[in-house]
Structure formats: structure tokens, C-alpha cells
Design a protein that fits this description.
alpha/beta, carboxy-lyase activity, about 45% helix, TIM Barrel, about 290 residues, six-stranded parallel beta sheet, lyase, single chain, Amidohydrolase, three-stranded parallel beta sheet, 14 helices
Length: about 290
């Protein structure tokens, strides 16, 4: 059975209309090429190779997600320096207009212009923001972001935020900066990328404490990650209890294994039932993003 049939069989048997993947990457070609070069060079950093399974042109990658039956996906972009986020947002806006099954995505960076271009992005219909604390190497509580967080909180727009210390720590990664951020902006709709690995427990704590904090499953529970940063067995019960706070994410196309493998390891978790699987693969995100 080819991979698309394997993925479709999973969601069909659960009675779903497809999957919502909140963590996929589409970027300008020159930026995506640099991201792939980064992963190609990461072997020494993480102690193992990181091959890109879906290294293909943009049209083929979109077609692949559609073949899998992915109802909605994202174009998670992120800036690693000033004067980059605004033009990335412009590109992502055009991509979403041309790709109606992509949630309109935007990003930001701590810089004086951020308040203005985030305001513009919200007005233009942005549905999800991306923040990458590790790559951007910024403190999420930087004063330059105060009005940015305030605008996003007031608009109720989710932010997929890579803030855990995996696969490699950054100067500002970990749960403590996010806990401080949520103390200041308790209504923020944060989606903690990668289940917050490896600080899984601390980020689950935040999801218990704040109604609008969610976690995405990106790369978690797969053998690739379990060998390096295993999800604690002691937290399996809490994983099930927090099922309405968990959303499926894949990291497509930048994953070192097949998409079907990621979905299978998620639905095969011990102690979860079909209601949990339906919520995580589709229903939670459909509710969050107002999908019919």
C-alpha cells in the first residue's frame, strides 16, 4: 500500500473528513533551501543524520499533502534576524491566497517595526503566527514584542511557538520564559511546538494552567525522537487527560521519516481511545480555526 493510502486509511477508519496539520513549512525557495542546508549539517550537533524525506519543489509538496488528505496545513515561516519578517509575511500571504487549504500564516521578530507589520498581518486575515525562539535566538519577553503579544492576544490568533530546548537548546528556550510570558498575557493562544520537548512535563503544566495553551505533536513519539528525548511514561495519563489541548503537527517536509509513520506512532500511543485520536488529528484544530 502506498503512503497516501496508508494515511487516508487512518483518518477514514476514524470517521474523519481528513487531518488538520498545524505544523508544516512552506517558505520562499531561497529560504527553504537554506533551511534544508541547515538540517543537512545538523548531524554533528544532534549526534545523527537528519535527511529531508520530502525534499521536492513547492507544487509537489502541496500535492503530497493533498494526496494524504490533509484538510488544512500551515506555511510556518520564521525570521532569524531583523528586516526579514515583514517580507516573509508578504510571501506567506500570497501563498495562502494561491493555496486555499493553507491557513494564512505570519511571523514576527523583536524589532521596532514588529508592532506595525503584525497589525497589518492581523488586518489581512492571518489565522496563525509562528515564533521560533531557538532559531530567532530572542527572549519572548523582549520589550520590543510587548505590543505584538498584546495585539495577538486581543485578536485571539494562535501562535505556534518553538520554545522547548529540543533538538538543541537555545539561549532563551525552555518553559520559564513562556511561563513569564503567560503571566503577562494569560489569554494568549499558544501552541507549544514538539510537545515542548524535552521539557514535556513543564509544558503540560502550562496547558493545565491556561485554557488557551495547547501542544502540537510534531515529531514527538516517533522512534527518531524517542531515542534522544523520550516522552516520559509517567505522563501518558496526563497526555490523555489533556486530549483537547493537543493538536497534530508533522514538520512536513523536514522530517527524517515518512508521514504515515508519524501518524501511526501517534494513534498507537498506549491508553488513548478513538475520541482522543479524532480530537488530535482533526477536531481540536477544526474548532480552534473555525473549520466547518
Amino acid at each position: 500500500m502506498d503512503e497516501s493510502k496508508k494515511v487516508r486509511q487512518i483518518w477514514t477508519e476514524l470517521g474523519l473528513p481528513g487531518i488538520v496539520d498545524v505544523h508544516t513549512h512552506f517558505m520562499p525557495k531561497n529560504v527553504m533551501d537554506k533551511v534544508w542546508q541547515y538540517f543537512d549539517s545538523q548531524g554533528p550537533l544532534i549526534g545523527r543524520e537528519w535527511p529531508i524525506t520530502y525534499r521536492a519543489d513547492e507544487a509537489q509538496r502541496v500535492a503530497t499533502l493533498r494526496e494524504f488528505g490533509i484538510r488544512r496545513f500551515t506555511s510556518l515561516i520564521y525570521a532569524h534576524k531583523p528586516d526579514m519578517a515583514a517580507w516573509l509575511n508578504q510571501w506567506a500571504r500570497g501563498f495562502a491566497q494561491d493555496t486555499p487549504d493553507c491557513l494564512a500564516t505570519a511571523t514576527f521578530f523583536p524589532e521596532p517595526e514588529a508592532t506595525g507589520y503584525v497589525r497589518d498581518a492581523i488586518a489581512a486575515g492571518t489565522q496563525v503566527f509562528k515564533s521560533h525562539i531557538q532559531v530567532g535566538n530572542y527572549e519572548p519577553n523582549d520589550p520590543l514584542l510587548d505590543e505584538v503579544w498584546g495585539q495577538i492576544e486581543d485578536a485571539g490568533i494562535p501562535v505556534v511557538i518553538h520554545c522547548g530546548s529540543g533538538p538543541a537548546p537555545g539561549d532563551f528556550t525552555g518553559p520559564d520564559p513562556i511561563a513569564r510570558l503567560l503571566t503577562r498575557y494569560p489569554r494568549l493562544a499558544l501552541i507549544i511546538a514538539h510537545m515542548g520537548m524535552p521539557e514535556y512535563s513543564a509544558f503540560l503544566d502550562l496547558a493545565e494552567r491556561y485554557d488557551n495553551v495547547r501542544l502540537d505533536t510534531t515529531m514527538a513519539f516517533t522512534p527518531f525522537v524517542e531515542e534522544m528525548m523520550p516522552f516520559p511514561a509517567a505522563e501518558q495519563g496526563r497526555l490523555k487527560d489533556l486530549g483537547e489541548h493537543i493538536l497534530f503537527g508533522s514538520d512536513f517536509p523536514n522530517i527524517p521519516y515518512g508521514y504515515a509513520e508519524a501518524v501511526h506512532h501517534l494513534i498507537d500511543l498506549p491508553g488513548v481511545d478513538d475520541a482522543w485520536r479524532r480530537n488530535v488529528l482533526h477536531d481540536n484544530a477544526a474548532k480552534l480555526f473555525g473549520l466547518s
